[in-house]
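We treat protein structure as text, and this decision shapes the records that our systems exchange. The tokens are whole numbers drawn from a learned vocabulary of local backbone shapes. Below, we set out a record of this kind in full and without editing:
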Amino acid sequence: MHKEKETLIFGIRATIEAIDSDKSLNRVFIQRGLNNKNGFELIKKLNKKSIEISYVPIEKLNRLTPKNHQGVVATISPIDFLSIDDLSNLINSKSENLSILILDQLSDVRNFGAIVRTAECTGVDCIVIQSSGSAPVNGDTIKTSSGAIFNVPICKVSHIKDAIFLLKQHDIEVYGASEKSEKDIYETNFNNRQAIIMGSEGKGLSNSVINLCDHLIKIPLYGKIESLNVSVACGTILYEMVRQKNY
């Protein structure tokens, strides 16, 4: 089930009700200096759900909507995200040929959309993202993914580590893409139940995530440029997995 486009909501009470109804909020814009009881209640709920907050001047909110926003404007995602319990159920439902893609705080919307498109084409079963610091699912994501965003389940977790620990409980091999690896993807034998972790555009994988990986892998580079665009790198790795599975 999916919605056709991102929905804008405004007002403190409306946003609180959206949270209490488990709506998938992309981002919440709150007026700087907002200082009232309901505002504090909203912020507390947002922090508990690990929903990203952007504190902005009132002019920003006025540009987003001419309505009486009470210092709060939020966007609802056009898709419904899986919970970590849903991810566990998905893993249990597939005894073999399971592929999970984890994005470690990848923040560029167009890269995200391109990765989702490739993931759909290569048969990835689920994409995992973190609640804070990750690219939102919005109109740009839908366009860049060519609609693939509606075909690949996306799980949103409070922390990437939560998903990694879950995968390890299910004996799923975790491969982290990192230039620190001494082994490239063509020397790697992927099995039929694995997860690939891709890092953010500028920083790559965080050290805490690297330490949890079962294997580190890299793509061999022969030119003068030291790295590939993350969406290109992700596609290269996913299609090497497809090649190994089919040949």
Notes: The first strand starts at residue 7 and ends at 10. Residues 84-246 form a domain with the Alpha/beta knot fold (CATH 3.40.1280.10). The two ends are 35 Å apart (CA to CA).
